[in-house]
Please model this.
Amino acid sequence: MALKVRVRPATRPTLRVDWTEVGKHSLLLLACLIVVFPLLAAVIKGTQTGAMVSGASLKVAGFFWSNLREAWVSANLGVYMRNSLIVAVCVTLGKTALSLLAAAAFVYFRFPLRGALFALVLFSLMLPSEILIVALFDVVTRLHWTNTYAAVIVPFLASATGVFLFRQQFMQIPSSLAEAARMDGAGPLRYLWHVLIPLSGNTIGAMAVIQFVSAWDQYLWPLVIIRDEAHQVVQVGLKGLSSAAEGQNWGVVMAGAVVSIVPPLIVFTALQEQFSKGFALGGEK
Amino acid sequence: MDTPVFKGRLFPWLLLLPSLMVLAVFLYYPAVQTLRLSATASNLITGNARFVGWENFTDLLRDPSYVQSAALTLLFCALVVSLGLLVSLSLALLASSVRRGARWYRLALIYPYALSPAIAATLWLFLFNPEVGMVNTVLGDLLGIRPRWLDTPGLAFGLVVMAAVWKNVGYNVAFYIAAIQNLPKDVLEAARIDGAWGSRMFWRILFPLLSPMTFFLVFANLTYALFESFALVDILTKGGPVMGSGGATRFLMFRLYTDGIENYKTGFGAAQAVLMFLGVALITLAQFRFAGRRVQYGA
Model:
């Protein structure tokens, strides 16, 4: 064996590189790039116009507002956005209220058929509304709700997930609180409003995110039941825009698509804390 | 949880009434109607319905294009669920294990949650547009190829799978990160000290602890792949391109929509709905039996 002489100067600063950490960061950066790229491209293309759009150029140009104005006014995006906002807000508020009431009934009362009714609510998870479109179309048509907001709001107001999560949440709240409230002469609705709701902030926030996003994302049902531009939602409305697009119009489509993501993004960002805390599915029971 | 605190006979029914009414009118009644219609050759527009018994079902199961749709849907679901969960769990674990910048990675990975399937499809439609899409502009300049993504069966199928997985990464990562953040702190510390997420650590401790979330996500992704991916197909491929005895991306939900709604074959569509429901029920049942043994620390 060759004799090894240590030549390393003792004073050399020790620069330890943690290679696993570097590896993780490069993997994550790459993943983020892939995940972000389609949206990034959409944002950039939304600022371009003319021949630039149909090229590979990723330079930000200054036409975002004129693209957006064209989508907003001539392609009706403004109307679609307003409709989606009305629908998503109504569905979110209605679903939350209805599931809070139902969960309170299941936790704080004893009544005949309680178990059966709870099973009936949960079983609805097995019946996605998409499967039922043919018969649902019949029901909603007979109610004369075609081309109304009610058609895209009311059928979605009951929520098995909501009832289930709120029930879990209420069961974690000590029953002595309810006992005390009852002693003080508070009825169940006052207890719900003054104690249960304030204590369930995280669950309500998490549910609101899921419900708003899923209501905003509705596509199939509005496509089936709304045939009138004035009541159409943004997901279906944008389809009209993109199917008519050729070459240079894509800048307008991308500007519209980007703007249609903003409302769910705002809701999600605002309630992110509640969202992660509200789903302690994996943690303590 | 035996805490019947408040008294009242009618009151609980009053609280339940709104939910029960919505469920009855817009879920259970249509469900029964679907079952009834599936035994008829009916057309809602002309209003005539004729009882045909099992005919719709035997017609469907004998139709090679329906069988092909079912097989393609199954393949599609399997790919979307497995690829989606694999990618998302790896990314969520990675993003939770770095010492710096975890917040930013999470933010970037979770944002596609705000994307709808329809918007995701619109973005991909443009990116992979054969003439003006960026992907082909770059491929054409670099390699001189311009694949017809949406007109080639294999490519179109692959593209819809990729778009579906991509769209749901945000959702899955969001839920996995929430689950990881709610794990007992000492477990994570131990994992970090023991050479950070070694494969044994992962399979013995983390994976079992996360199994309730995985269980939930398998179901969520399955319903996503079966139903919500309709928008992807409708916007990207319209069920095409032609392959075998049907379209390469003509999945069951798209079929149900075209037959039952666009072509007004109400009874025929209802029969497809019944078959889809049976499929979902079977898979769920299998999942619960499987999970009964496997999922630990049940949620």
Remarks:
- Chain B has one domain: 64-294.
- DSSP finds twelve helices and four strands in chain B.
